[in-house]
Amino acid sequence: MLLAIDVGNTNIALGLYRGPDLVQDWRIRTDARMTADELALTMRGLLGRHANDVTGVSALSTVPAVLRELRVMLGRYYASVPRLIVGPGVRTGVPLLVDNPREVGADRVINTLAAHYLHETACVVVDFGTSTNIDVISAKGEFVGGVFAPGIEISVDALAARAAALRKVELVRPRSVIGKNTVECLQSGIMYGFPAQVDGLVRRIIDELERTTNPGEVTVIATGGLAPLVVEESETIVDHRPDLTLLGLRLVFERNNSR
Prior knowledge:
The protein is an alpha/beta fold. The chain is built from eight helices and ten strands. It folds into two domains: 2-85, ATPase, nucleotide binding domain (Nucleotidyltransferase, domain 5, 2-Layer Sandwich), CATH 3.30.420.40; 120-246, Nucleotidyltransferase, domain 5, CATH 3.30.420. It has helices at 36-47, 64-77, 106-119, 152-162, 182-191, 193-212, 227-230, 244-256; strands at residues 2-7, 11-18, 21-29, 56-61, 83-85, 122-128, 131-137, 143-150, 218-223, 239-240.
């Protein structure tokens, strides 16, 4: 069984694959102070009865401190199985059509691989995480660039920290767009404002693609831990794939261990 590990700034997503099938997945909090031994103990606890069934590991990390411990952990606890950490030199099959390919995060490359595998069309991937990342993929599976915007949670935290009369609120839909109290005003701005921001950016991206590259059909995919909050309110997102990065990790592992 393949263990896929996606270390993000806020959460670590884990997925266990038997062949092409995702058997189970988990999400834990990212702690930059976590040691290799702590990471291994946590994962083995989640894997439970499958802990000794792992025959390969595919991983990425966008957090440098955790990446170091991840390398140590894999070398110490999974030395007997094929393992891969996505980074420079790893064959992904994704052309990076940007000014500096080394600036492109491993998660964005892997999401590109998975999105093209799923749809084989031009794609826009909206990853709702610590930041909201919008990645643009050509019909040939090329990564052509994207957009960064502040994420939902850090925007809420910043607003609560900088505005004395405002506070963090539960992220649920209010009774109406027009809030009747402070809590509902905040909830409306979050639950309807972020989908509107994404829809506006996606429409501009598609318009630009149509003017410059004639992309044909463009599929808009949502992923990331906060995607469920906004997917239903978006007018442009047509596919929600919570496991998009885990799927990409499976695909890149197979590409690099095909023999």
